Amino acid sequence: MKIVCLDAATLGSDVNLDVFKQFGEFKSYQTTAANERVERLKGADVVITNKVVINKETMDASNLKLICISATGMNNVDLAHAAAKGIAVKNVAGYSTASVVQHTFACLFALTNRVKFYDNYAQSGEWAKSEIFTNLDRSIGEIAGKSFGVIGLGEIGRGVARIAAAFGTRVSYYSTSGANANAEFKRLNLGELLSGCDIVSIHAPLNEKTRNLIGERELNLMKEGAILMNFGRGGIVDESAVARAIDGRNLRFASDVLETEPMRADHPLLRIKNKENLILTPHVAWASYEARERLVAMIAENIKEFLKG
């Protein structure tokens, strides 16, 4: 077999891809532009892709037998055309749950404990000039006793909810599908959750029910100084409205995802004044070393299962 990985850069240079050599010839490219797909897939039986789109034209110009998506989402593959051509498509799920849950609380505590301010205070030399042992210029808050709302109570959302409860918060959730009935936590409608919670964490997929779910009207329901976090998908939150709320209503916001990735150079979140109220990370919540190791192992297992028929 010939296996081609089109965007190995999305898996990281610290993860070993030699596991795929057990199946035959393996060729890896760090990134692949749209006009390079067909040439690179000549003679390939299996393609591994994360964000490189495998469309009808690409499939028709190749002899692919298996498309391995190195992610959970499958929107980068024309699934209907793959089915029509008899090309198997395999994704991976569940590999990043612990990583995303951990990153959620890393960002939350960076906001509640004012880590950006105090780290800069100490490393800038200002602490060395102090007449007292501490600095209380920024108020640190505890999450114990606070109301914690989860939007999207799937596997990751449940993990976040359980840890939030372990920290002493009062956890509730909003089901974006309307079908999730979880007896462990209190279910609220969206308005109740936004207006009643001190902390709101989004862990939902992007679909017709969640696109633009949180706009200016919804943000205005939230408490002054509340924390909103998005670890689901860009497009769920109106980012321009969030930028206004950070400066206008003292909203604190953490996000690992944006509607357009990589981030636009003219993004409104780059122009806010209240920068201590913002934590942005470049879509890395999923990407602990351990999660990426699991991901590669699961792709290899998908290839093995395909070969077994």
Automatic annotation (TrEMBL):
<dbReference type="Pfam" id="PF00389">
    <property type="entry name" value="2-Hacid_dh"/>
</dbReference>
<feature type="domain" description="D-isomer specific 2-hydroxyacid dehydrogenase NAD-binding">
    <location>
        <begin position="106"/>
        <end position="285"/>
    </location>
</feature>
<feature type="domain" description="D-isomer specific 2-hydroxyacid dehydrogenase catalytic">
    <location>
        <begin position="14"/>
        <end position="309"/>
    </location>
</feature>
<dbReference type="InterPro" id="IPR006140">
    <property type="entry name" value="D-isomer_DH_NAD-bd"/>
</dbReference>
<comment type="similarity">
    <text>Belongs to the D-isomer specific 2-hydroxyacid dehydrogenase family.</text>
</comment>
<protein>
    <submittedName>
        <fullName>4-phosphoerythronate dehydrogenase</fullName>
        <ecNumber>1.1.1.290</ecNumber>
    </submittedName>
</protein>
<dbReference type="Pfam" id="PF02826">
    <property type="entry name" value="2-Hacid_dh_C"/>
</dbReference>
<dbReference type="InterPro" id="IPR050418">
    <property type="entry name" value="D-iso_2-hydroxyacid_DH_PdxB"/>
</dbReference>
<keyword id="KW-0520">NAD</keyword>
<dbReference type="InterPro" id="IPR029753">
    <property type="entry name" value="D-isomer_DH_CS"/>
</dbReference>
<dbReference type="InterPro" id="IPR006139">
    <property type="entry name" value="D-isomer_2_OHA_DH_cat_dom"/>
</dbReference>
<dbReference type="InterPro" id="IPR036291">
    <property type="entry name" value="NAD(P)-bd_dom_sf"/>
</dbReference>
<dbReference type="GO" id="GO:0033711">
    <property type="term" value="F:4-phosphoerythronate dehydrogenase activity"/>
</dbReference>
<keyword id="KW-0560">Oxidoreductase</keyword>
<dbReference type="GO" id="GO:0051287">
    <property type="term" value="F:NAD binding"/>
</dbReference>
